[in-house]
Amino acid sequence: MRFTYSSASTAVISKNTNASFVYFSLASKQVVTVEPDKSKWDISFTSYTHVYPDGMPYIVAGVISNRNVVRVAAISKAFKDINYSDFLASSFGSSINVIGFDWKAYNFDTGVYAVDPNKSFIVKTVNGKVYKLHFLDYYDEFGQKGAPTMELGELVG
Question: What does the pLDDT look like over 40-54, one tens digit per residue?
Fold first, then answer.
C-alpha cells in the first residue's frame, strides 16, 4: 500500500471541558461534535476494546457509562425484586465499563448470544435519579444481533 501526501498540515485541538472525548476528522481537518455534553448523557451503547487479564485485547459490543458523573453498581438479583434499599446498600464504581458487555454471553453450541437473567444494574444518572436496569435480549424482532432490549425502572426512596 502506498500513500501520497500532497501537503503537510498542523491542527491544534483544544480540550473541551464539556465533553468526555474530543473527535477530529482527518478528512475535514476539523474538530467534529459527536457526543452531547457530559452533563446530558448517562450510558452509551458502543463497541470498545476490553483487555482480558492475560493482556489479550478484544473488541466487544457493550455499554459504557458517563464516567464524569454517572455511577453504576452491578447487582445479582431479580429485576422485579430490586428496590431503593438495594441502591443504598450497593457499592458503586466510577469505571466506564461497569455495565460492560458480559451481561450477555455467546453460546458456541447454539451460535447465539444469551442474556444473563441474574445480572442487573443500578444506575445513578447525571440528574441524580436512580434506576434499575436489566437486559432482556440482544436481538431485535428480526433476529439481528446488536439491538438490545432492556427493562428500566426508577427507584424512589
Answer: 999 999 999 999 999
